[in-house]
Amino acid sequence: MKNTSPRIVELNTPQFQSWLTGANKVLEDHRQQSFPNLPKELLVESEGGRYIKVTRVREGQTGGSAFSFIDRTNGDVLMAASWRAPAKHARGNIFNPDNGLPCVGPYGIAYLR
Length: 113
Known about the structure:
Layout: H1 14-34, E1 41-47, E2 51-58, E3 65-71, E4 76-80, E5 86-93, E6 104-105, E7 108-109
Antiparallel strand pairs: 1-2, 2-3, 3-4, 4-5, 6-7
């Protein structure tokens, strides 16, 4: 049976675009401060059935690593458990006043405390 739950988060949703811009800024600020000679890394989104996968890719290269997943039904920010699947528990939400950015670090999404 196909999942027909409503989608409230799309790639062009303003809250998602704001979260992606903020997460890219966290990565770039850390790179410039600690590793200025390394190539720039970007977060690239790809749309799936239930989740939007955010992949970390080095500039000028193909491939990369799974950075996070955004649940399209509610806006939860999920840590990547593997290339294909998110971890079980949400670390933040893009609809919160802080836009879910406190869970984003230069090495990925924060572990649960």
